[in-house]
Amino acid sequence: MSALLLWMRNLNFPFNLQHLENSYLIRLVKTINLREIWYFGLQYTDNKGFSTWLKLNKKVLKQDVKKEPILQFKFRAKFYPEDVAEEIIQDVTLRLFYLQVKDLILSDEVYCPPDQAVLLASYAMQAKYGDYLKDKHLPGTLANDRLLPQRVLNQFKMNINEWNIV
């Protein structure tokens, strides 16, 4: 039996279940150069379909994991700081929080009111692309960026092309 660790939906880390322990998480965070590991953990879907945190001090097969040929674990934020500006030291930690919160909002796992979703999308695009320049930001520039939850797109009865004016 083997397992895959899903990280940000596009990076897979294969590993042997016999070796999964706290040292594996340490090895993973070293790979991405993350020192603030206390905020993060490994999550899996248990036999009842609930998201559960992997206890790294227990053997994997002693936990309520599905007995499948390939197990999937997600590297996720387990705790959030109260004051991001004061408590977060590394840019990589901030980036990981941003990506997870963005994913939770876009998938509607965390509700975000439409006006705030549009505002957050504008901030994300400003950070990614900078100020709008007509010669630089041609039509279709935002075509590959998922910016808003489907619920917000449906609410305003606009298709994706109407939202992506750039």
From TrEMBL:
<dbReference type="InterPro" id="IPR035963">
    <property type="entry name" value="FERM_2"/>
</dbReference>
<dbReference type="InterPro" id="IPR019748">
    <property type="entry name" value="FERM_central"/>
</dbReference>
<dbReference type="InterPro" id="IPR000798">
    <property type="entry name" value="Ez/rad/moesin-like"/>
</dbReference>
<dbReference type="InterPro" id="IPR011174">
    <property type="entry name" value="ERM"/>
</dbReference>
<dbReference type="InterPro" id="IPR014352">
    <property type="entry name" value="FERM/acyl-CoA-bd_prot_sf"/>
</dbReference>
<feature type="domain" description="FERM">
    <location>
        <begin position="1"/>
        <end position="166"/>
    </location>
</feature>
<dbReference type="InterPro" id="IPR029071">
    <property type="entry name" value="Ubiquitin-like_domsf"/>
</dbReference>
<dbReference type="GO" id="GO:0005912">
    <property type="term" value="C:adherens junction"/>
</dbReference>
<dbReference type="GO" id="GO:0003779">
    <property type="term" value="F:actin binding"/>
</dbReference>
<dbReference type="InterPro" id="IPR000299">
    <property type="entry name" value="FERM_domain"/>
</dbReference>
<dbReference type="InterPro" id="IPR018979">
    <property type="entry name" value="FERM_N"/>
</dbReference>
<dbReference type="Pfam" id="PF09379">
    <property type="entry name" value="FERM_N"/>
</dbReference>
<dbReference type="Pfam" id="PF00373">
    <property type="entry name" value="FERM_M"/>
</dbReference>
<dbReference type="InterPro" id="IPR019747">
    <property type="entry name" value="FERM_CS"/>
</dbReference>
<dbReference type="InterPro" id="IPR019749">
    <property type="entry name" value="Band_41_domain"/>
</dbReference>
<protein>
    <recommendedName>
        <fullName>Moesin/ezrin/radixin homolog 1</fullName>
    </recommendedName>
</protein>
